[in-house]
Specification:
6 strands
Length: about 260
Amino acid sequence: MNDSINIPEERSRAGELLQKRSVRVGLMLSVWTIMAFFFATQVYMLYYREEKPVPFKRALFVEGLGCFLWALSTPLVLWLARRFRIGRNNWRRRVPLHFLIALGLVMLSSTSSVLAPLDMTGVYTEVMIRWLERLAQGEAPVIFGDGSQTMDFVYVGDVARAYLLAALSDATDDFLNVGSGTETSLKELCRLMCREAGFPDLEPEYREARKVNGVTRRRAATSHARDAIGFEARVGLPEGLRELVAWYTELTHPAQVAVT
């Protein structure tokens, strides 16, 4: 009597393929690439329906960046799923643990104010888009308060590079700030924005301050990121604003950009 179990040859080959790291990495990147195209299509159709068409390549860049960053986190997520399995006898402890880990990953994925295309919402980041809208109509940008509030701006390409440096470094179990390490006031940001948009002598319009957040100064401490993974921001604020202005001009006046 033969007690052996015959495993189909196709299943055996598939198992052998999945044992190869290159195959697993390729499969993971393929899945996240598909997700990037899916989300980019959603964004493209949303803006198209609102009669504010966005170039698909721009939507794909932004959504692709987010999916790529999560792709880098996938090996960690899979390891945690194997290390802390949820069972009938431990689910009361493991479910809160998984929730906290997920919350930690989301928090680690957030950075300083990122100069990213399509990032048009939010109390702080939308201010640049609102200024550009007013400048396009020949109106002065509006600053709520005296303009002394400061923020730390970092270019999206630098953020992506920081994630790559972290993934390739030996650093582990650490927390790093990804930013430029430079404070920029709203008044200075407005001056730079007007200059890059072609209105260097335009003065902003000041209005009564709005109660949004009690934190009026923001500057990321980046020395630890430099020591741990070798990260330093390379793209300055003027260069990032120049690209933002070019993107907005292309978005709102594509024919003008094509001529120039």
